Amino acid sequence: MIQLYKKREFGELFSDTFTFIKQHGKHFYKNYFLINGGFILVLLVLAYFFVKVYSSLLATSMGPVAPDASVENYVNDNGLLVFLFMFLFVIMAVFVGFITYAYTPVYMLLYAKKGSNDFTAKDIVKVLKQQAGKLFIYVLASMLISMAVFLGAGIAIFILFITIIGILLIPLVLAVITLSYNNALMEYLDSDKGIFDCFGYGFQLTFKRFWVNAGCVALFYLMIQIIQSIVTLIPYLAGIFSIVTSSSSSLGNSEENVAAVFTIMLIFYVLSFLLSLLGNTIIQINQAIIYFSLKEESENINTTSVIDQIGTTED
Q: Which of 49, 50, 172, 265 is the most buried (most CB within 10 A)?
């Protein structure tokens, strides 16, 4: 079993993330999909029907009526239905995002508390329910703090972008923000500190050995983005190429061509969405490893525990 509270250098932060996934990935993702899988499936079904309706409208409007006008007419005639559909889609997307973001910190804190993965999906759900109030407060505080954080980050990213070479440092800016927020959330869930004290503590941890911590997260961002782009772009381009080549022999069948294009887009969306969920959990596991490493370095939690156990044994 991997020890979470442990001082780590850059290489160890990197390798221990993969070691944790190798040892506990099956348990981690099994419980993740037990808790969130149904909601993800509903979200994908809603996305499917949205693309299906939209593609049908475009396909049938290949004539005197412009595609945009056809869609606008449909929305005007079915305003309430479209509103309810979009409302349900947004609510489901927010809920999936919320569970996805909260799951990893809760899982890692449970693992740290028990010293193993000897817990079930019911235990995770129980903690999520117990911490629902804190999670809601965290979201509100994040939105408030983000106004200033994202303004500063936006300026930094713009400056890096126009320098061209600085583009490579953009993942570092994202790493600083997400690592600080993750540190704040884990500290808030695991302590009695106030929310803004936890945000201050989270930023403080991030800038302790800044290049090691932020650099590791930035590397994970870059690595996962490259993998995700390769996995999704190749089948997408292959699908579009097959449609273009086949359409040359059947120019009159525009309805089938439009339907095929949107089918490829839907498959691309689903694949990209699932890879994004997987990538985000991996990044959060890495951030949790960094959090526990920094906590040990700052507060000597594991060292103190070992000393206490020695004292108990002697008694």
A: 172
**With DSSP H G I counted as helix, E B as strand and the rest as coil, what are the percentages for the chain, rounded to 5?**
85, 0, 15
For 136, list phi and psi in degrees, rounded to 5.
Answer: -65, -45
Average pLDDT over residues 150-169: 72
Torsion of CA 308, 310, 311, 314, to 10 degrees: 160
List own/partner pairs for 85-90 with CB under 8 A and 24 or more apart.
85/46, 85/49, 85/50, 88/46, 89/43, 89/46, 89/47, 89/50
Q: Report yes or no: 134 and 191 within 8 Å, Cβ to Cβ.
A: no
Share of the chain above pLDDT 70, in %: 74
Q: How many CA atoms lie within 13 A of 210 on its CB side?
A: 7
Q: Which residues of 11-45 are buried (b: 16+ CB within 10 A; e: fewer)?
A: ebbbebbeebbeebeebbeebbeebbeebbeebbe
**Half-sphere exposure in the Cβ direction for 206 (13 Å, CA):** 27
With 50 as the cut, is the pLDDT of residue 173 above it? Answer: yes
Q: Which of 221, 139, 240 is nearest to 175 (CA)?
A: 221
